[in-house]
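Holo model, iron/sulfur cluster. Inputs:
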Amino acid sequence: MKPAFSVIFLTTLIGAAQGLFLALFTHQSYALFGLLPMQSDDFYGYGTLIVLALLAAGLVASFFHLGRPERAWRAATQWRTSWLSREVIVLPAFMGVAFLFGVSHLFGIRPEIVTLPSGMVIDLSVILGAAGTLLAFALFVCTAMIYACLRFLREWHSPLTVINYILMGGSSGFVLAAFYAASFAPDQADFFAGWAIIITILALIGRAASLFRNARLKPTSTIQTAIGVKHPQITQRSMGAMGGSFNTREFFHGKSAGFLRAIKPAFLLLGFVLPLVLLALGLFTPALLGLAFILQYAGLLAERWFFFAQANHPQNLYYQTIG
Amino acid sequence: MTQLALVIDLNVCVGCSACVTSCKEWNTSGSAGPLVDERPYGENPTGTFFNRVQTYEMGTFPNSETMHFPKSCLHCEDPPCVPVCPTGASYKRKEDGIVLVDYDKCIGCKYCSWACPYGAREIDEKQKVMKKCTLCVDRIYDMTMPEADRKPSCVKACPTSARLFGDIHDPESEVSQAIREDGGYALMPEWGTHPSNHYLPRRKTKMKIHADELERADNPLKLDQQLPKPDKDQSTLDDASAW
Amino acid sequence: MPSTPLHDPLAPPVAGATTEIKKTTCYMCACRCGIRVHLRNGEVRYIDGNPDHPLNGGVICAKGSSGIMKQYSPARLTKPLRRKPGSERGAGEFEEISWEETFSILAERLGKLRATDPKKFALFTGRDQMQALTGMFARQFGTPNYAAHGGFCSVNMAAGMIYTIGGSFWEFGGPDLERSKLFIMIGTAEDHHSNPLKVALSKFKREGGRFISINPVRTGYSAIADEWVPIRPGTDGALFLAIIHELIELGLYDREFLVRYTNSGQLVNLDAEHDEFGMFVRTEVPEEEGCYDPQNKLWWDRNTNKPVVTHTEGADPFLRGEFKLSDGTPVKPAFQLLKERVAEYTPEWAEGVTGISADTIRRLAHEMGITARDQKIELPIAWTDSWGKEHSSVTGNPVAFHAMRGLAAHSNGFHTIRALSILMTLLGTIDRPGGFRHKPPFPRPIPPCARPPNDPRAVQPNTPLDGMPLGWPADPDDLFVDKEGEPVRIDKGFSWEYPLSAHGLMHNVITNAWRGDPYKIDTLLLFMANMAWNSTMNTSEVRKMLTDKDENGEYKIPNIVVCDAFHSETTAFADLILPDTTYLERHDVMSMLDRPISEFDGPVDSVRIPVMPRTGECRPFQEVLIELGTRLKLPAFVTADGTRKYRDYPDFIVNWETAPGSGIGFLSGWRGKGGEKSMKGEPNPNQWEMYAKNDCVHHEVLPRSYQFMRNWNKGYLEWSQRNGITRYSEPILIHLYSEVMQKFRLAAQGKSITRQPPKHLAKRVETYFDPLPFYYEPLETQASDKQKYPLSAVTQRPMAMYHSWDSQNAWLRQIHAHNYLYVNAQTAKNAGIADGDWIWCESQWGKVRCMARYSESVEPGTVWTWNAIGKAAGAWNLTPDANESQQGFLLNHLISEELPKQADGSRFSNSDPITGQAAWYDVRVRIYKAEAGEPTQTSPQFPPMKQYPGMKQAPSWLAYFGGGKKKGGAK
Ligand SMILES: Nc1nc2c(c(=O)[nH]1)N[C@H]1C(S)=C(S)[C@@H](COP(=O)(O)OP(=O)(O)OC[C@H]3O[C@@H](n4cnc5c(=O)[nH]c(N)nc54)[C@H](O)[C@@H]3O)O[C@H]1N2
Ligand SMILES: Nc1nc2c(c(=O)[nH]1)N[C@H]1C(S)=C(S)[C@@H](COP(=O)(O)OP(=O)(O)OC[C@H]3O[C@@H](n4cnc5c(=O)[nH]c(N)nc54)[C@H](O)[C@@H]3O)O[C@H]1N2
Ligand code: SF4
Ligand code: SF4
Ligand code: SF4
Ligand code: SF4
Ligand code: SF4
Ligand SMILES: [Mo]
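Output:
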């Protein structure tokens, strides 16, 4: 597939946003149980603003993918069958809840909702945080399922796609949270960094697993099934469009195999190994964690590029030769 | 239930591309139109076409075959391009099984094209909506046309009548018969999309020559044979016999 | 679930539009299908096939469907243009002038030429369909220097078959696939009968017919063949002769047919001392006045063992053997000579020449022979033959052939095609069901009666040419040469160098005119011919000749006028450009006097009627000719007192007659005052309307009994004579053995009473004018170093492009934006060439850089490409970086219009030595990888052509929406 930058940015940006939201609310939950010191409302509130900013940026990027953005609202109508439609619903829902979560913190609007028998007070921000958490996961699933549900894109059609979207989004969100904490609540940085390390390791395992799987995929469709001729040796002589077509633009990454080979270690290094190394240093300075986030984000951009480029669409069988 | 479709006879398709441009011509000014062209007079001209003809070679010289292969939307019975569409712009008509795009709903997200294993959809780079073969829905039901014209443009154009059109759910139809009797097959059956369009394979006529056909009593060579006429003086039985 | 659609796909896309359907004839190619042009608010919305048209029955091809993009092409010329005074020819600097000015310039210059030396005006036309008018104009003008594309196209096919069976493939006849069982297609990629052939081929295949294709390349039609027989280019003659050998060896020929309908049984004089050596022995029957074959030859009767006059009732000739006439003259039947000729042409021999195994050759012969013999067709149609014999049925042998330029475009093509005609004859398949069928006005006498003038005095100032500029020589006295035997025509047509050049040699006109050999001319008028590009050989050099100047700084070809509808490469070399209309904007006729669209069952002619107003100041060339003819006071166009005779072209078509009161004109339909007559009759003022009402076609279906065996069908021949189609109604015996050829050979041997060739040509004429077909290597191959240039290079017609003129077509050029050189994958690998590599393809004449494409469907010794896809930069109003000029290439740069120098420094045309047919497919090449640092661009390149005044800017987007609002995108 041809990696579209709008989609690369969309998925990586909202992934980080979802991850950051999860990180913030995880922290709040820990604090709720007294496992960590509760931070100021500002800490959660401004953090949520970052979440919203990332989501908004992702949304803007996504509009670049649409031919007719003015009709984007229509995309919410087919939630019964379309994961894309579901994403289109869940994303704003998540944004809305995150927004409210942020508002409840920033403006201190935290009416008490229930008090548990244990004496724990569940206020509005907790309810919103929990809802946001659910939506964040739902959004991960929707986004990933857009790709994972396409059966003939074998590289994508796997539970690993969903798992990896969650883990990579989570990883980048927690790294970002660590950086955020290092800057505004330095004593909490190690909490986020710790989780970041765990999730990043899991993400690395997940991504490696999918690379391993994809390297072993045997194409289900062949030129023989594509044109329905059994002959063992079939070569295309002409694809019927010499100046190119949508089919040659949309489904081929247009880069050399060497480029593709080089990108793989690059994103593994940038997206997973280097951030892990930086985190493992245990020096949770804003500079180092900021660097970790930036490197990782670049790595995830490359990862996403590779994710698309590696997917070999069966339609490509029909578009092999200009002649 | 009706399922309209094309059946393409690869046994007679000569790859002339009449179906390609007649389709473009009809549809550019039709309900799906215009079908835009980018750099029409420049480098790498490229435009929207609903149907293209490709060429494949099988085997190695001298045991090689050349095959022309037209391809348009196959109007799958279970079209993966439809459920994925977030807007409902991509739909399959109940009444005749034609898969269409609603150009007024489509947001040009291209997702349906990813979901089609056959590469049958093309974005219109100017109108920014997804387009594809409509089975000439604006011809086949146009009652202002004489009945003979109510066929897809490509079908009418095809000089070898390699393109049959009809209802594959009607066992009596020409297309069903062709699929049944001439080995009609579907592309990439492995995905369970159940394409409605079918292809008919090459069929070879061979000739068997029997040895006796080469040696015949009525061989005209016999008539023109001037048998040697021996000399009258030559010795014959007459010279030696005594009857 | 999807809700109801917003976009109603069934709603008319343009509300309240006015729509109209007009019928006319397509001219996206020379096939002439009937079309319906659907207009919406006056713009073309759709063009489809006319279902009621006899030729295409409603189907249409890729080109025909793209007519819209031709009509609205930004490459269209819309104003008469004059080369800017002071600018260099070829630089493409033009200024608009008015038609009035154009005509006065032309009339003045041409008037002077006509009054002094009409030869100095040359009119050559390309792939047009109005040769009857252009030829007549030239004749009226008085110049012999006229021809159309036939000489570089397929005159070998026309001549080879017409001189043998009195008809031909091309537009004159074809395979009866409806009844055939075995079809052998040879050297055909697309043909002139584009749609009808496809229609017939698919029906044939569906009905279980067996289809064999003989071609070095397997594409297009050959792709669906049941068997592909790859052959080395230029060697088909060897194949046919070997098949003939095998058929005769096994007796697999139709003896009855040969006896009655061919000259097989006729006795040939074999007395080497005799003047008539090699001619048929004739009896005293007085020779009739006329142009052909009186029935006064002899057979050797099997029943009486005596010579008798042919077709004597009850006689049956020996086809084999040798005999002595009473005066001691040794004689043999023609068939015996053929048998002797093919004795050495064994399948084993042919295997070495053609690359086809002897077993395959034998099997092909057996398949043909057995199918012909054992699957006889008998139709219950009673008919009478020319000798008065009644037949209760028409029979046929269902083996059909079709061949075109794969045979024609070689310098041995004439003999190859004679061999094929004889093969078809041996199988008994001429104008019989399931075989070859003629289309009226064919068959014609052998050779047809039209003769070129044969004396330089035929050309006189202010006088029409004495004779048609083109014709069919029957013997050396018909050559158009002077006393020294030197050519009178600028192209050397009908000279001793190319005696039977029935269509002229357009491919040599520019070179000859430039060289002044045989003389200099003043004005060259090119109509519908892209002679600075794809229809010329040696393109790079010819382009230089067009701008070359003499010592005085004058152009060697002083004045070039081009009539074109588009921004072709050739227009750049014009001094004057006449912008033509498109086919949708003008009247045209596909006349019986030219190449009508006749069917097997009878004559058909057709017309074009404008469906669109003319664009800009475009004017049909026909109108231009009539206007010019009137101004020049050419007798056909003015009355006795010199006043205008015809208002315009439609008026001319209706009222002109071949001779006053002849009743024969351009159109055969609805003649007579009220349109009640067919074929012949007084002019009918409403003829156009009647054509318009009848799908633009007039189809005269012959009675069934006139539809077969027409060479010898008394009823048909007399009908044809009555209708002025032929002058004679004698039977047209097939020339298995060609006396015409022998007459030239005798002349070359100094034995004839006719003219004799100049000494230096005697050997050539003697060699090639063999009365029986023989095989020789193509001339260029003979003159090439085959070690150095091991490959043959040929072109093929792409189905979705017509010559050079469709690159301006926004839809078609997406199918063929540029071309590759297709090379057998193994051949390429051996040369270290990878698929898609930039390579050089080099002949002894030049080289082109192009891209290679592997193929398994091409014989290893052949490389090929699509014809005329490559373009000069900027031409056709394409951007200078367009694929056509940057990646596309033209093979013509590698093909010479002349053969290497003779010992005396003279050069023959690169043509068939008999007909002057351009030998496009003889060129030998080698291929090698381009160097790493070379530009990835075709070579040669030419400076980009400029846009001319009056041309539209080519848009960067196109969103054509005929006659309606254009949603999105600029138009
Ligand atoms: N679409 C389209 N149709 C056209 C035209 C066009 O430009 N485009 N042009 C029209 C014109 S003007 C013409 S003359 C006709 C020509 O119609 P064709 O005769 O069909 O034209 P070519 O493309 O020259 O085909 C020549 C074929 O002969 C093969 N060949 C070459 N050398 C040999 C040989 O030695 N032996 C054998 N057996 N085969 C050989 C080539 O591979 C090729 O397949 O087409 C007409 N129709
Ligand atoms: N290498 C190679 N060269 C070949 C051949 C080959 O097989 N191989 N084939 C040869 C053969 S068979 C032929 S017939 C020639 C054909 O060669 P040409 O006769 O030169 O054919 P075109 O290239 O189509 O060019 C005809 C010109 O007519 C113009 N034209 C189109 N429509 C109209 C119109 O309505 N009015 C006027 N006035 N002009 C119009 C076009 O713009 C173009 O400039 O090519 C020959 N050249
Ligand atoms: S029009 Fe018919 S013969 Fe031509 S390419 Fe299309 S299907 Fe094949
Ligand atoms: S061919 Fe592709 S676009 Fe057409 S119905 Fe099937 S999946 Fe959808
Ligand atoms: S491009 Fe249009 S039709 Fe396709 S999925 Fe998107 S909205 Fe639906
Ligand atoms: S059915 Fe109509 S839209 Fe579809 S390929 Fe044929 S002409 Fe085009
Ligand atoms: S074959 Fe030629 S005449 Fe017929 S539709 Fe095609 S372009 Fe027109
Ligand atoms: Mo031609």
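The beta strands of chain A are 112-115, 121-123, 234-238. Chain A touches chain B through 58 residues (CB under 8 Å).
Archived with the compound record.
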